[in-house]
Amino acid sequence: MYATVQELVDALTPEEKAGLCTGAAVPRLGLPALRVNGLHSQESAGGVCFPSACAAAASFDPEAARRMGAALGREARCCGAQLLDVPDVNLKRGPLSGRSADTWAEDPCLTGALAAAFLQGVQSAGVGGCAGRLAVVNQETDRRTLNRRVDERTLQELYLPAFETAVRDGQPRAVVCSAGQLNGTRICEDTALLTDTLRGAWGFAGAVLAEPGAVQDPARTLAAGVDFAPADAGRLVDAVQSGALDESVLNRAASNIIRTLLAASTQPSPADRTADRSLAVELAKQSGVLLRNLGALPLHKGQKVAYIGAFAAHPRYSAGHPRAPQVTSAIDAAVLHGRKIHYIEGFPADRDQRDEAEFLRAVVAAEAADAAVIFAGLPECAELAAADRRHMRLPECQNNLIARVAAVQKNTVVVLHTSGPVECPWADDVSSVLCMYLAGEGLGEATDALLWGNADPCGRLPETWPLRLEDTPCYLDFPGDGVTADYREGVYVGYRWYDARKMPVRWPFGEKQRRDARSRGRAALCGRCHGCAGAGRAGAPGAAQVCEDRPAARRGAGDRLYADAAGYKPLQPRAARLVRRAGPVRNTHRAFEPGHPRGAGLTVCGRKNLSLL
Fold first, then answer.
1. Is the Cα dihedral 528, 531, 534, 536 positive or negative?
2. Of 154-163, 201-210, 594-603, which range is least confident?
3. Helix 108-124 and helix 160-170, axial crossing angle in degrees, nearest 10
4. Which of 7, 95, 218, 514 is least surrounded, with the fewest CB atoms within 10 Å of its CB?
5. Which of 114 and 318 is assigned the larger pLDDT?
6. Confidence class of residue 38 from pLDDT cuts 50, 70 and 90?
């Protein structure tokens, strides 16, 4: 009946426009209510549980993120979803954030590249992706009311570039703006951020959604650039009638909501759960990071191996999501492949409790075996999605048992299940450490393949693992005083902090080791590598690049490293003024392909005044 979006908007009454913008349907014109699906609801409906963002980021592979996004998009379309509330495009400011599982990395270039590829995958299935939560959402404590105080340089160099890359390259149908305040202004009422930067500088043309609980004044929220504001529709109608809100603003918001609704595929499409399950296992293998190996790995056929820890039987594979229907444990996978293992619980998976008899059984079994694999990690109650962690320690029962087993078994391997860094006081005493993060329902098969040599652990750390919590950049300011969170560390987040202070860490950003224990790969600043792959400003004098320090012949498809080197050296006052005038930093070149004779690199700064290294 109506040929264009504008004709649809013209046919709507003010009450219907306000209803569309606050979550109501318009049945007489066939317009459904806008609904945003989360991953939890999808998995509750029997969908496959893929690796969390913290695990997927370890692949350093945008193509893997794209494939995962496409599979999740197909699953969402099977459920009739219009929008999928992923990905989170914020950075890992510190290790205690309750959002750690859903956050990619501590680096804006890596985060932006993976989020953009993920969005492309989701939307290739006919479902819209939502880039969220704009902006600077790095904690759960007081998140909906907190005022984040962040200086302009830090915003432009660190927290906004990831969103810009996701918006420009991923072209999401929606962006979700956060609750709370940024530098004293409510984020959903921040015209400079939502209109000038998001729509103006970045060219975003989709719908801006305010997350539930963010809106106090719906009229001011829409005027700032938001299109979907969960609130009382009557307040919007009253604001238009009183003149407090121009009707053109309501028309703009209704137009963006209608475009989003019309872009969604109307026909549910069946998902191939078998193929998606196989992909989940493949992606989990790419997520494994070998952090230490003195020769215990790979395990060999015929070895007597003790599997210790309840996570071996009950893997921690996601952050509080519903139990996936096809989860296979490491024990199940070992039995399936005929491995010669002996399982001892040693410690429980859901609490910090030491049973002396079980403790001794584990030590005796480890001493009698050819190798011992301890499956350790944080209990689910310690990593709730709606709460920040209080410390970086593993349960004491786990630390004690790892130390005791390492004392009697030289081939001790620790497999970690966690969404972020933990303190590892035993790290120098064990032979091998394999970090699996929260790798989805394919975790068991992936861990088995990586331990026994059927797959290569090609992942890299997407974040720095410090020696202790007190070393972290935001230790003195996190999580704030309940009213304000000061970001006094500025641009020195993650590896920038530790490198600037020449501070020792447990494992650095980009860390990986190979199973043969002879080769090690790591993120390395390259001041001489002017022949890196790519075009544009790659190789230009002064351009900051990060390259792998291994020969090209040793690289695999997953050995891709992109890192932002801006911020390693402080800007001089004049350069800082240029940054403020120039606006958001953009990445002008990405070299994704491995195998170049001088290394695969990423030019991280396309502006001459910011090429500081």
1. positive
2. 594-603
3. 30
4. 7
5. 114
6. confident
SS3 state of residue 219: helix
**Residue 313 · residue 331 · CB < 8 Å:** yes
| Two tokens, residue 268 | 């549910």
Interstrand relation of 181-182 and 185-186 (parallel, antiparallel or unpaired): antiparallel
Q: Are 378 and 397 in contact (CB under 8 A)?
A: no
Give 341's strand partners. 305
**Cα dihedral angle (383, 388, 391, 397), rounded to 10 degrees?**
-20
- Cα 399 from Cα 377, distance rounded (Å): 10
Enter the tokens of residue 390. Answer: 């209080």
The count of other CB atoms within 10 Å of the CB of residue 66 is 20
What is the Cα–Cα distance from 304 to 104, expressed in whole angstroms? 37
| Whole-number pLDDT of residue 266 | 64
The structure tokens listed for 528 are: 């001489």
Task: Compute the half-sphere exposure of residue 474: CA atoms within 13 Å on the CB side of its CA.
Answer: 23
Torsion of CA 154, 157, 162, 163, to 10 degrees: 70
Note whether 52 and 321 are within 8 A (CB). Answer: no
- Higher-confidence residue of 525 and 343: namely 343
Q: What is the pLDDT of residues 552-594, one digit of tens each?
A: 333 443 444 433 433 333 333 333 333 333 333 333 333 223 3
Tokens found for residue 583? 């606006």
DSSP-based three-state secondary structure for 413: strand
| More confident site: 267 or 524 | 267
Do residues 558 and 446 lie in contact, with contact meaning Cβ atoms separated by under 8 Å? no
The predicted model scores a pTM of: 0.86
Per DSSP, the three-state class of 569 is: coil
**Residue 174 predicted with pLDDT over 90:** yes
Sign for the CA dihedral angle at 384, 388, 393, 397 comes to negative
Q: Average pLDDT of 589-604? A: 33
* Strand, coil or helix: 194: helix
Cis peptide bond N-terminal to 554, omega within 30: no
Chain CA centroid to CA 240, Å: 40
pLDDT in tens, 58-90: 999 999 999 999 999 998 888 888 999 999 999
Q: What sign has the CA pseudo-torsion 159, 160, 164, 170? A: positive
How many other C-beta atoms lie within 10 A of the C-beta of residue 531? Answer: 12
| 334, 447 Cβ separation under 8 angstroms | no
Distance CA 537, CA 547 (A): 15
Quick check: 353 and 379 in contact, CB under 8 A? no
What share of the chain has pLDDT > 90, as a percent? 73
Q: Is 306 helix (H, G, I), strand (E, B) or coil?
A: strand
Please say whether the beta carbons of 214 and 179 come within 8 A. Answer: yes
Residue 46, classed as helix, strand or coil, is coil
Considering the chain, what percentage of its residues have pLDDT values greater than 70? 81
Is residue 608 over pLDDT 50? Answer: no
Q: CA-to-CA distance for 237 and 557, rounded, in angstroms?
A: 55
Which string of DSSP letters, residue by residue, matches 73-110? Answer: HHHHHHTT-SEE---B-----STT-TTGGG---S-HHH
DSSP one-letter string for 584-598: S------------TT
- As a whole number of angstroms, the distance between CA 80 and CA 73 comes to 10
Write the pLDDT tens digit of every residue in 415-439. Answer: 999 999 999 999 999 999 999 999 9
